[in-house]
Amino acid sequence: MAVKLVSKAKVKEALHVNAVHKLIGDILSQEVGGLVCESNQEFISTGLDTLDFILGGGFPVGQYTLIVGHPGSAKSTLVCRACHELEKKYKEKAFTIYIDTEQSMSVTRLKQLGVTQASIVNGVSIEQVFAYLTKIDAFKNDAGLSDIPSIFVWDTCANTMSAKELDKITDPNSSLGWRARLLSFWIPKMLPLIYRSKIAVVIVNQLRDKIDSGFAASPTDLKYLSHSKNIPGGNALKFNAFTLIELKDRGKVPDTYGFPGAIIEIKTVKCKSFPANVRLNVVLDYRTGFNRFWSNVHFLKEKNQLVGSGASTYLKEYPDMRTKTRLLEHTYNKDPKFKAAFDEVLQKTLQETFDELSAYVITPPTLAKSDQKEATDDESNPEPVQEQPQEPINEEAQVQDQNDDSCPFDIDPTQPTSLNQTHTS
After folding, report:
1. Helices 336-357 and 292-302 meet at what angle, rounded to 10?
2. What pTM was computed for the model?
3. Residue 269: is it exposed, middle or buried by C-beta count within 10 angstroms (0-12/13-18/19+)?
4. How far apart are CA 94 and CA 22, in angstroms?
5. Residues pairing with 118 in the sheet
6. In what order do the strands lie in the sheet containing 306-308?
């Protein structure tokens, strides 16, 4: 198949490098086929500022996120928080499909977590899960909602059986490995569909212990997954995920917070929009789900930016604004000065943390003015090229360049990076 070449005139018009890339992508898409990915990935907020920070913005739209953890680690509650944020932003145009294979989610609980426009489906097979996605794609296209993000929750993948396994007369031994093969077949087909329809797929899964016995040791899993743990569902499920996070329950919240809850540790095992292997502690309220404000409070306390005892707590940069720990949220909502100071310190601390994690920020390259002038000059009158004298080789600089790893992120790949360590400027 012949591909049309780009004319020199169009190249001269597209002086910006990104414009040239888009031009090439459009031509390849028209002549060869396929979908051209946009440069800016869209996200659905998780409702937690600090979690959105380490995920690059939240749950990616048009991709799928894999959430793993032990029972009781609030995996489903985290997904519901994102569903609530979607409804808050897009109102009646937002909708969520919740595949509940464990039959542990109810409409009442969804409403308690702020989700009112979700449809719960249970009793389905793996094949039916992907059939639902196809129907949603067609529905959004017919209803003119293809530009409005949606959330498709699959909770849990490990508890979903194939149609073959659901057949009671089937010998269990004959279906071994059948789920992994189905997922490796359907997931590559799912990716372009959810990208086209702006569906954020969130798959909740379990963690299982590896069983190693001498020479029959199981193969190495994802690098930053907890030691001696594995994820059921085969490699396709893990390695095609845009984001993979692991949740752990780290105990009760401090009594000074004034409500029953738990500290949940979230670790990015895999993330395509931010450095992976970053740990973060967030606050779960047993009654209302994950709490944005108290997660920010806990983050600032761990970064030593919010100090003091239960009776007198204050921002380190604003020692005159003091209040009781239990009254922090009330003060934040009622006192504009405290709110402004709190938000300022939070944003500053997040930026400092980002600077610690990344050595530089990638910005779109632009041509210098001299390069732009040369690109618009008439090529029919080329100027003679003069040879430049060759500079002597600096052996010391060459050795130094060879020793430079040029790693874009200031992260030790052998150690987990934690947002919970105290920042020192």
Report:
1. 60
2. 0.75
3. buried
4. 30
5. 96
6. 306-308, 313-315, 318-323
Q: Strands of 253-338 (E only): list them.
A: 261-271, 278-285, 289-290, 306-308, 313-315, 318-323
Helix (H, G, I), strand (E, B) or coil at 150: strand
Q: With beta carbons less than 8 A apart as the criterion, state whether 288 and 332 touch.
A: no
* Full set of structural domains in the chain with CATH: 9-38 (no CATH), 40-164+175-211+218-295 (3.40.50.300), 303-352 (no CATH)
Residue 99 pLDDT > 50 = yes
Q: What percent of the chain has pLDDT over 70?
A: 68
Between CA 379 and CA 368 the distance in angstroms is 19
Cα 78 to its chain centre, rounded Å, is 13
Which tens digits make up the pLDDT trace of 218-276?
555 566 676 556 777 778 898 899 999 999 999 999 999 999 999 999 999 999 998 88
pLDDT at res. 21: 57
Closest CA to 70 of 205, 201, 202, 261: 205
Residue 224 contacts residue 277 (beta carbons within 8 Å): yes
Q: Tell me, what's the pLDDT at 393?
A: 44
pLDDT tens-digit series, residues 127-157: 999 999 999 999 999 999 999 999 999 999 9
Dihedral angle sign, alpha carbons of residues 133, 137, 143, 147: positive
- Residue 40 · residue 55 · CB < 8 Å: no
What's the Cα-to-Cα distance from 140 to each of 41, 60, 158, 175, rounded to whole Å? 20, 18, 28, 35
Mean pLDDT of the chain: 79
3-state secondary structure of 415: coil
